[in-house]
Every structure is written in C-alpha cells, then in structure tokens.
Design brief:
Blueprint: H1 3-23, E1 32-37, H2 48-55, E2 56-62, E3 65-70, E4 73-82, E5 85-93, E6 96-97, E7 103-110, E8 113-117, E9 121-129
Antiparallel strand pairs: 1-2, 1-9, 2-3, 3-4, 4-5, 5-6, 5-7, 7-8, 8-9
C-alpha cells in the first residue's frame, strides 16, 4: 500500500470513529419529574381551586413509561425517543385503557426545560431527575 493509500485509509478510519463516537455521546436525560402550567382563558365559572387543578401539569418519565397529570386528568403510557424529541403515547386515561390515539411530543429547550406539545405548547421545568446523585 502506498503512502497516499495509507493516508486515505487513516482518514476514513478517523472519520468513521468520529461518526461512531458522535452517536454514542451523552444523550438528553428525559427521566425525572417535570412541572408546568397551562394558561387557561379567564372564566367566571371556574373557582381558583378548579382553575389551578386544570392548569397544573406534572410529567414523570421512567425509561419507556410516563405518568402525566394535565387538564385535571391522569394519563399513563409509553415513551418513544427520536433524536432530540420524545413521543408520549397515551395508553390509559384516569386508570382506564384508552385507544384514543392521543399523543404528546416533547422537545428539548435546555437541560432543565422541555416543551410539551399537544393541543397547546407548555414549557415544563425539571423538578427531579432519574439520577440518584442529582436532585
């Protein structure tokens, strides 16, 4: 093998290693508990207690499962990951199996904030992680 071929082989090997290492680098840490608030329009018939319940959002992710409390209802389901986003597929609503096909998309904002996208967009803040050494 000539000097030119050896350099080309080394360059290809280095490029392959760079690509492989780039895909095995740190991933976003989705696991944990996230909280936020959905802004509702003002309605006279909503008491402050009812309003705060309907506006509260709490999401807990553990691997490929999630629990979500939103719009006053508990949801459970499966999480799928796709690069810089996660897809929440609702399997149970208020403890009952559902085939509604309802899904939410999560998008990364920064290490401690994500956006929950459904019929509206809500920013959630990390309040706990799935990492034992990090709150």
């Amino acid at each position: 093998m000539g000097a030119g071929q050896a350099r080309a082989s080394r360059a290809l090997l280095l490029a392959g290693l760079a690509i492989a290492c780039g895909s095995c680098g740190p991933r976003y840490e989705w696991d944990g508990t996230w909280k936020g608030t959905i802004e509702l329009p003002n309605r006279a018939e909503l008491t402050s207690d009812v309003r705060s319940t309907l506006e509260a959002v709490k999401l807990t992710i553990r691997g490929d499962k999630f629990d979500l409390f939103a719009s006053g209802l508990p949801f459970e389901g499966a999480v799928g990951y796709d690069g810089s986003k996660a897809i929440l597929r609702v399997l149970r609503t208020a403890g009952q199996p559902t085939e509604s096909g309802r899904q939410y998309e999560l998008q990364i904002v920064d290490p401690d904030h994500i956006q929950l996208r459904g019929s509206s967009v809500t920013t959630l803040t990390r309040v706990a992680t799935g990492i034992p050494t990090r709150p």
